Structure of Thioredoxin:
Amino acid sequence: MATTDLTLDTFPSAVGSDGITLVDFWAAWCGPCRSFAPVFEQASEQHPDITFGKVDTEAEQQLAAQFQITSIPTLMVFRDGILVYAQPGALGAPQLEQLVQGARDLDMEEVRAQLAAQQTQ
């Protein structure tokens, strides 16, 4: 599966559904973004069961502001509608593969329990 361009309108349904969604916040003028793009694209081909989305921070400034993107590329991982990872910086293929495996291995019941505990504090 190839990457999908996400917009303010399509973002909520992309990240809010069950499963894993990786989101790359990028811009055309960003050198590290351009070097990370093929790595992200290749991972999308290797993991057709995962949604790989891209947000052009120039075209989608409101979305970038909503997520407080101050450095690009920034990669976010959502699992079952929950943000489980957010870090700026380009990753190499091995690091991205580790991140994908980590998202797959998450115990989402434990994640939900931790979130519930934080909300009661």
